[in-house]
Amino acid sequence: MELEKNKKKRSVIRQLTTKLLTKIEVGYSKTDIAMDEKLENLRDFSVQLAEKLSELKHLDSQIETDTSVDELEDEIIQSQEYQEKAILWRGRLQRFINQHTGNHEAVATQNETSNNRTVPETKVMKMPRLQMSTFYGDSSKWLDFWNQFECTIHNNGNLSKTEKFTYLKSLLSGNALAAISGFVLSDRNYDSSIEILKDRFGRQDIVISSHMNKLLSIEPVRNISNVKALRKLFDECEIQIRSLESLNVTSGSYGNLLCPIILQKIPEELNFEFNRKEQSKFDITELIEFLRKEINCREAANLMNYSKTFQRQDTKKGGNQWNNSEFKPKIASASTLSTMNYKCIFCNKNHGKFKCEELDAEKKREFLKRNGRCFLCFGQRHLGIFCSNKHLSCKKCRGKPHHESICLKPKMPIPSEIPDKEESADISQNSSATTGSDVILQTVYAVGEGKRKNCILRCLLDGGSQVSFIREDISKKLGLPSKGYSNLNIHTFAEKNGKHWRQRKVELTLRNINDPDKFITVDVIEAPVITTAEIKPPDEKIKSQLKGLGISLMTHPSSDQESIPVLIGADCLWKIAKEEIKRINENAVALDTIFGWCIQGRFSLSELNSEESICSNLLVEEKLSRTLESFWNIESLGVNSPDERLENEEALRLFENSIQQNNDRYEVRLPWINENVILHDNYANAERRFFNLLKQFHLNLNFYKEYKQVINDQIKDGIIEKVDPNATRGERIYYIPHRAVLRKNHSSTKLRVVYDASSKDKNQKSLNDCLLQGPNLVPELLKVLLKFRLHRIVFTADIQKAFLQISVSCEDRDAMRFLWIHDDSNLSNPKVQIYRMCRVMFGAKSSPFLLSACIKHHLRKFESEYPKTVELLNNYMYVDDFICGTNTEMEAIEVYHNANTIMKKASMTLTKWNSNSPVLRKEYETDKHKDSTPLCDSSSKVLGLEWDTCKDVFSFSAQDIIDFIQENAQTKRFVLKAVSRIFDPLGFLAPYVIQAKVLFQDLWLTGIDWDKPIPLELQSKWIKWHEFNSRRSYRKSKYHVGISALMLKHLTNGNCIASMIVHRVLMVLLCISSFPI
């Protein structure tokens, strides 16, 4: 009851405070009353405001005491936000009163005179209002911002720290504001915020690096005639060099490195001129002085040339400069347009030469050629390629040297000119009611700046509207200055008659979020609503697709709302657009703007919704790249040396220091790059992909049941565990998206859950980014397979769920969290439960190293007890597959029993034993009944190769490729996929596979796109290849060399043959023995 009473009372006080703030704002801006009267009114307002603030703080304190813990955070934030404006106005009033009271009293004192002495009167000049710049997080601008802020606010003793904190937040934006956005307004938090900002943006090393990066990224200038661009380059260099000098970084410490870089960015003629001087060295001071003189000379020369040309034209036309249409100034105001007379060079009528519609583009070109005029500015005595008015280049033709009005391409609409004051116009606006789920409209994010505050706005680019609009509530929130009223006739779709509007026009500044130097100031019309349609931004799949084309779309984290507060019409659409336009497909394009890339058009989502494709459509290109890599890498087996990494020794050291064995199970730490690495939690990505997984479950209940069974089994086996919200959290928390890998031909587990430890947000690190990969401890595939063929008796096995048999330390388990359905909920109404991995998982880049290192560490304990078996396990263990051989069955049985004993002491079970020996298979069958160890049948696989254990041969079935080729999609992409399905590491099928690889090389040389049909001249080769494939299946004897001890002699013979297309090396081993092989 007391809580409701206090809230009601606070509501009344807030209403009174709002009215008082309105009175203060009006009184503060009044200029038609005497200063004494204004100061008196403001003093009264200040006292009243202080009382209201005191009452509000007292009521807030009482309400917070009675508020529940769940609602307390929202209550504090709401209270602080409401008090911010009042505190801001209180400080503003106090400064105004102190400033003008001091000046007024000084004047009054100096005007008091006595009879014996005259006091000279001091005139007080009213200084212009100081406008502090906003700091966006650019370290190179930190010192300027901090010096301003420290002088005006930080060292102001009349302000409390809470008031200073309010000012500080109002002057920050972008990354700088995000750094302290979590702090509530308080005295203690103000000091903490200053420390954070200084540490992040004000550290001297960061500031120096920022200035150096700006020097390195200066825009190059290639045209020596572009004096304006040269001046910009010079000024930027000098600004950064002087800034570095202010930080005690002299040019001598970096000049030798910077000089060659700047020389590369200036025109070749200037570079040559500088290097021609004998006395010149790589001295940055000398280079800057050289550029200063050159640019000053060229600016003076250009000024003189312009003056002479102007006088010459003036004399030619009879001394009246305004009669010469070549040099008439551009008229900005539409109201004065009717008083000026243009003389068109084409038709001699009163309009501008660029706006003539009497002649078409071809006739204009003929006229210009006939009169020897420039195609750019239409001036005389020069050609377009030498014209200095490069800004007139045609944008439709990407900067070709002719004006857009004589371009032979279809004419683009001309943006309408809107008068500054009250006007009347017919506006045609393209209103969208709804959009298809796969049609994207052009939107960008920008910082909207006003007098009251700044905020991030999502802007819709609409070329169908002749003017730009802003929502009324956003305009008032920003405090945009008024520029009069506009009378509009709005014509919308399917309406014959337009609606008449009279709306206020305001001035809006839009600025790039990441680069504050890029901005535009536009006149926009206030409107109650821009659109009621839901215009969704591009989803993550489309963004990932576009990254492959070098297009990065921006989504600001605080702009998750999908409403549109600003519409940018044709009046300023092409002011923000850059020249680059990329076609994504036949239905969609991307446009580069000063705010970043935006896209428009239809995107096909049918391919993106595939159940087995979690990533975006253009990630197919990344998959394609991996396919190409594996396609050719198989040729280099046994040739390429293992990848040596600098961090291998560190990974091994961390492993040896952290591994321990508890109850026969090994426990390891994750090998972090360093102990101080910062890991983003990635919760948003994990949640989004988990909800996508739930959608797949709804479509396929059997898939859900299999997935759930795997999760339940892992909970039962202690592989995963629920996260206790009350337990102590680890140093790093990371949520991992997960998905299923279906293995239809797998003999045991058909579905495996794998984790995407590479998932991350933009500018953040993933779990894999923070882990060491470790050295490759796995033997080479080719060596393992060749050794497998040496022995008469061979056998295979693998470790059951090998990765999941190694525990991960509790310190690192919070970095392997994932989301799953709560036990108490079902699929129709799922609740999210947080789990975490307790074992080494599939998907982390360090997992293969941890498994191999753990096995080798374990085997070292048994070197003295089982030396022969340990040697075989070390040399013949490929990841989790044991592929071995001996010369006698007795040796093989001994290895079988010893290997099982050794591995069980590490909680690892060797399963799927198989052999080409009937004796061994019988031994395995006997043990299978004892301990239910799974046993393979006569047909099994050896590292991807089909092996018939009864006949002891490798077999290669073409059925898989035949089924795949039935799709009959004869494209370059399809050929690559088909040929890549052949796995032949030992080269048994080389004569057959090489034909397909040569065909693919021929396809590559044609330059056709991935999804274009194969050219007719190559289709016959492709058909011949797969028809030959469909008629054959292959078998190859495994062979074995025999008993090496009985070898008397062996000879080797080799030969090589090569052509322009392929080469072949053949080695023959001849063995002479006293014993039949």
TrEMBL record:
Domain of life the protein comes from: Eukaryota
One Pfam family from the record: DUF1759
A GO BP annotation: DNA biosynthetic process
Residues annotated as transmembrane: none
Domain Reverse transcriptase span(s) in chain numbering: 717-947
CDD domains named in the record: RT_pepA17 (cd01644)
PROSITE patterns in alphabetical order: RT_POL
Gene3D superfamilies, A to Z: 3.30.70.270, HIV Type 1 Reverse Transcriptase, subunit A, domain 1 (3.10.10.10)
Family matches, as PANTHER family: PHD-TYPE DOMAIN-CONTAINING PROTEIN, RIBONUCLEASE H
Record protein name field: Reverse transcriptase domain-containing protein
Species assigned in the record: Araneus ventricosus (Orbweaver spider)
